[in-house]
Amino acid sequence: MQVIEHSLTVLVVNGIKELYDEICLPQQVQLQKTRGHYEGDITLVVFPLLKMSRKSPDVTADELGRYLQNHYREIIRYNVLKGFLNLVIADHYYLQHLNLALQDDLYGFRKPTDKAETIMVEYSSPNTNKPLHLGHIRNNLLGFAVSNILKANGKRVIMTNLVNDRGIHICKSMLAWERWGNGESPENSGKKGDHLVGDYYVKFDQEYKAQISSLVSGGMSQAEAEKKAPLIIEAQEMLRNWEAGDSDVIRLWKKMNSWVYEGFDETYRRLGVSFDKIYYESETWIPGKEAVLEGLEKNILVKREDGSVWADMRDKGLDEKVLLRSDGTSVYMTQDIGTAKVRQLDFAPDKMVYVVGNEQNYHFKVLAIVLDMLGFPWAKTLHHLSYGMVELPEGKMKSREGTVVDADDLMNEMIDTAREMSKELGKLEGLNAEEKEDIFRIIGLGALKYYMLKVDPVKNMLFNPRESIDFDGNTGPFIQYTYTRIRSVFRKADELMISIPQRAPVNIALNDKEKRLLKLVHDFPEIIVDSAENYNPSLIVNYMYELVKEYNQFYHDYSILKEENVEVKDFRLVLSQVVSGIVKNGMELLGIEMPDRM
Questions:
Q1: In a domain, 106, yes or no
Q2: First and final CA of the chain: distance in angstroms?
Q3: Is the sign of the CA dihedral 200, 205, 206, 207 positive or negative?
Q4: Cβ neighbour number for residue 237 with a 10 Å cutoff
Q5: For residue 297, what are the domain limits?
Q6: Which is it for strands 42-45 and 84-89: parallel, antiparallel or unpaired?
Q7: How are strands ordered across the β-sheet holding 309-312?
Q8: Residues sharing a CB contact under 8 Å with residue 3, sequence separation 6 or more, in sequence order
Q9: Residue 297 burial by CB count (10 A; 0-12/13-18/19+): exposed, middle or buried?
Q10: Is residue 112 part of a domain?
Q11: Do 441 and 349 reside in the same domain of the chain?
Q12: C-alpha 567, offset from chain centre
């Protein structure tokens, strides 16, 4: 509604001046969609304007209604209800807009200009000590969808992945493999590389807990046992040796990481996500450490007696934060400082968006403040896209205990469920086995992605695989099925030698369902803008549901190809073509494929 709302805002400002000789600012004009059970398309909220009119709400609304109708031919009538002015927009306005949409294969998308904002989006950010799991799936799908939506809004987007390939957690897997691996590899075990390494991360935790238990039984406190267990001491020593460049440690690190990267790449391909640039913490921790030491020299940071380096943020309402440990090794914050520096040198983005779970909210507050303290002018351009955790009926997942929902296993389960439910519904007759398997894949992964993205990112979500793949309701398969229903209309039209018109007639009378569909078509560009500005793919997901739900009701009640009135038939064909294009493009923004048949 943005175009028409802009015009109406200007007219209301002018109307206030002409009718009441008062200055009205554009931001004082409140326009909204008319609620479904009232007549109207756009509603003007009159209450903020009463100080200017010095009249009652109903009188003010009526006077403004008359003024707008006289000055804007698209308004065919209006009604007043308790201080709300409901405006009815002419059908031909929406029909003309439909024809504009028909001529644009990427209707609603904006092309980047030379002055377009450059936004870097970081997502995925896996650790090389374990495979991707359900939480990573939400992260990857959010990051990929947000990147696509920003592009569709005319931004220049750089999609990045920061691989956490160093640190104490990596050393735990390495040490466990060194102790108990007996030369096991992806080649001789048949295991996917990231799964193999993840098994040793779990093994470390099991053995570490056994050592702690033994020490506690011998009279040591829990806290002291956690610090003095031989395994954790060895892991810490391995980390120090890694940072010192020990050749044997580096060789083992490279070998195990290579196994993991092959596994990650396979998962990313199946999930349908990609990156423009991959950064590795093993390459960015040194610039981070250099920045910290420079900050120390300038007395921005503080060194304690044990040699550790800290940022004091108490004057900013936060606590103190360690940036270098007493043994000189870096922490996550140090690495993130280095990564931010390197990215600015590489791409100089106008904004940096971190797609990271809400458990790291404090971390990113600290990161922005520390970067600002260190004098980086772009520190204030950082944005943390904080999202809620994915939970299961059984509760939270724990990687070190091996109680996670593995991403690969989940994708397999979704495809299997799609296969099972499609067979139960008797769909896909006439297709060969290979075609069916491809559709099962599209349905299963589409269901997973849609379900993950339909919840507002800020909210925690409970994942239910079978519910996500239902062919009715607000699900990916329901959207996909409606799309294939529209495509079947066009296949039938081809058989009947009926072609889609180049434009729809603009002087026909619309029924209520047709107008509601046209209004939704009209809203799509605004939905893309809102979704991009709020980094919120769920706005597009739920718009898709409203659009296809409305189309299904229209399809159920009205004929398309058998309609006798030629102009009405032409309009309905154009409407169906535009709706199918919006559905396909909108779902592709979410990373969801659309089958031609189901």
A1: no
A2: 34
A3: positive
A4: 15
A5: 123-401
A6: antiparallel
A7: 302-303, 309-312, 320-324
A8: none
A9: exposed
A10: no
A11: no
A12: 41
Are 49 and 80 found together in one domain?
yes
Residues 38 and 178 in one domain: no
Same-domain pairing of 374 and 458? no
Q: Which of 342, 376, 401 is the last residue of a domain?
A: 401
Q: Which of 358, 383, 401 is the last residue of a domain?
A: 401
Please check whether residue 229 is in contact with residue 215, taking contact to mean a CB–CB distance below 8 angstroms: yes
Q: What is the pTM of this model?
A: 0.91
**Dist. CA 559–CA 452, nearest whole Å:** 35
**Count of structural domains, the chain:** 3
359 and 393 belong to one structural domain: yes
Looking at beta carbons, which pairs linking 382-385 to residues 24 or more positions away fall under 8 Å? 382/340, 382/351, 382/352, 382/354, 383/351, 383/352, 383/353, 383/354, 383/535, 384/354, 384/356, 384/360, 385/142, 385/146, 385/353, 385/354, 385/355, 385/356, 385/457, 385/535
Query: 516, 550 in Cβ contact below 8 A?
Result: yes
Does one domain contain both 412 and 525? yes
Query: CA–CA separation, 123 vs 128, rounded Å?
Result: 15
d(CA 575, CA 583): 12
Q: Answer whether 387's CB lies under 8 Å from 139's CB.
A: yes
Q: In what order do the strands lie in the sheet with 277-280?
A: 277-280, 156-163, 118-122, 351-357, 382-387
Question: How far is residue 229's CA from residue 158's CA, in Å, rounded to a whole number?
Answer: 44
d(CA 60, CA 317): 48
Report the CATH number that the domain containing residue 316 is assigned in CATH: 3.40.50.620
CB 447 within 8 A of CB 469: yes
Residue in the block written with tokens 């400082």: 337
Structure tokens at 431: 């297709």
Q: Which helix (H) or strand (E) holds 391?
A: strand 390-391
Measure CA 180 to chain center.
Answer: 40
Q: What is the pLDDT along the chain (598 residues), one digit of tens a residue?
A: 567 889 999 999 999 999 999 999 999 999 999 987 889 999 999 999 999 999 999 999 999 999 999 999 999 999 999 889 999 999 999 999 999 999 999 999 999 888 999 999 999 999 999 899 998 999 999 999 999 999 999 999 999 999 999 889 999 999 999 999 999 999 999 999 999 999 999 999 999 999 999 999 999 999 999 999 999 999 999 999 998 999 999 999 999 999 999 999 999 999 999 999 999 999 999 999 999 999 999 999 999 999 999 999 999 999 999 999 998 888 989 999 999 999 999 999 999 999 999 999 999 999 999 999 999 999 999 999 999 998 876 655 444 444 568 899 999 999 998 998 877 766 677 788 899 999 999 999 999 999 999 999 999 998 877 788 887 889 999 999 999 999 999 999 999 999 999 999 999 999 999 999 999 999 999 999 999 999 999 999 999 999 999 999 999 999 999 999 999 999 999 999 999 999 999 999 999 999 988 8
